[in-house]
Specification:
This protein is an alpha+beta fold. The protein has six helices and 17 strands. The protein has two domains: about 10-120, Rieske Iron-sulfur Protein (3-layer Sandwich), CATH 2.102.10; about 135-340, Alpha-Beta Complex (Naphthalene 1,2-dioxygenase Alpha Subunit, Chain A, domain 1), CATH 3.90.380.10. Strands 11-17-16-15-14-13-12 form a seven-stranded antiparallel beta sheet. A four-stranded antiparallel beta sheet has the order 5-6-7-8, with no helix packed on it. It has a three-stranded antiparallel beta sheet with strand order 1-10-9, with no helix packed on it. A hairpin with a 2-residue loop joins strand 9 and strand 10. The longest helix is centred in the C-terminal third of the chain and has 31 residues, at about 285-315. The protein is elongated. The structure holds FE2/S2 (inorganic) cluster and fe (ii) ion.
Length: about 350
């Protein structure tokens, strides 16, 4: 049975990767061609010519239309074929599927489900790459694994102490200490202090402290978007805040933000997009580069584990996982995902 959920906005690529040359993206196992109209607005069409099913992404943009470069059929942005070379009449129904598409915060998003339910206000609020408050760099990784395994990984950060001890330098507190989990409109929020922790370089001013308190809070929202804010404070701040979220009055040493999107390209393949970087008050381009390099190293650690996990699952799909208390956010989110394709699914 398919695990792919249609009624969601999926990241189809970075804004800077979609231009006047058509590109193919696989989304939920479907080939989609993306390009920009002359006025810059992105277009998403089925990447399968109505004639003999060649990919339109190998075609040519002509004004706002796209011409298949196999036998020359020309398609409008609305999917209709306008011209068949050497034939006066275009038979009705000669068209390709179109997808609702939206551009927000440096990502191009495509709605893969019922077009009548495509509401752009439900697109996740990630940080744009030109947001002046952050210095962000980007990366992406392809997985040979079902997207849910990557979502599950991000919804339970107890794995940091084991998978990322080398890259992020995470210690055992990450698995001992349980976050506060809250249900939010489009997903789950997970927040906590990691108190009295060694600072992890590069942390700017925080690197001059032996021990620090780390506040982390992330929203994990439909259909697999991870928005994590991390801030570093002098040791003792967590206690002064009674374990609650830090207020504006606290001395802050460093902060950073990461936006990440998990995209099912197929049932057993996924693409993972991410940006990360320091707050512009505390970091610079060099720190941002070290952070994205560290993150890329860490995400390769996740990939190694998750792809190995997928192979074990495939060896006997009848074996089911046994949840632990740290899996609560996973359970909530999986239920929410499943509800998206129900006709009466509420948005929250
Ligand atoms: S396959 Fe596209 S024009 Fe023939
Ligand atoms: Fe990880």
């Amino acid at each position: 049975m398919s695990t792919l959920v249609r009624n969601c906005w999926y990241v189809a690529g970075w804004s800077h990767d979609i231009g006047r040359t058509p590109v193919q993206r696989m989304l939920l196992g479907e080939p989609v061609v993306l390009y920009r109209r002359e006025d810059g607005v992105p277009v998403a069409l089925e990447d399968r010519c109505a004639h003999r099913l060649a990919p339109l992404s190998m075609g040519r943009i002509e004004g706002d239309a796209i011409r298949c470069l196999y036998h020359g059929f020309l398609f409008e942005t609305g999917g209709q074929c306008r011209q068949i070379p050497g034939q006066d009449v275009v038979p009705p129904g000669t068209c390709v599927r179109t997808y609702p598409v939206c551009e927000k915060n440096s990502w191009v998003w495509v709605w893969m489900g019922d077009p009548d339910r495509a509401d752009p206000s439900r697109i996740a609020s990630s940080k744009a790459l030109d947001d002046p408050d952050w210095i962000l760099k980007t990366g992406q990784l392809d997985y040979d694994a079902n997207y849910q395994l990557i979502n599950d990984n991000l919804l339970d950060l107890t794995h940091l102490a084991y998978v990322h001890a080398a890259s992020f330098g995470a210690d055992a507190a990450w698995s001992r200490n349980r976050p506060r989990i809250e249900r939010i409109a489009e997903g789950v929020r997970s927040s906590r202090w990691i108190a009295d922790s060694p600072p992890i370089p590069p942390l700017g001013e925080a690197a001059h402290h032996d021990r620090v308190d780390i506040w982390t809070s992330y929203d994990f929202v439909l259909p697999g978007v991870f928005l994590l804010y991390t801030a570093i404070y002098p040791a003792g701040t967590a206690q002064a805040c009674n374990g609650e979220a830090p207020g504006d009055g606290q001395v802050i040493l460093f902060d950073n933000f990461t936006s990440q999107a998990v995209v099912p390209t197929g049932e057993r393949t996924s693409r993972y997009y991410y940006s990360w970087g320091p707050g512009s008050r505390f970091g610079d381009d060099a720190i941002a580069q070290v952070m994205i390099d560290t993150a890329t190293l860490a995400f390769r650690e996740d990939k190694l584990m998750i792809e190995a996990q997928q192979r074990i699952i495939d060896a006997d799909p009848t074996r089911l996982p046994r949840p632990a208390t740290a899996d609560r956010a996973i359970t909530i989110f999986q239920r929410l995902m499943k509800s998206q394709d129900c006709p009466t699914a509420p948005p929250s």
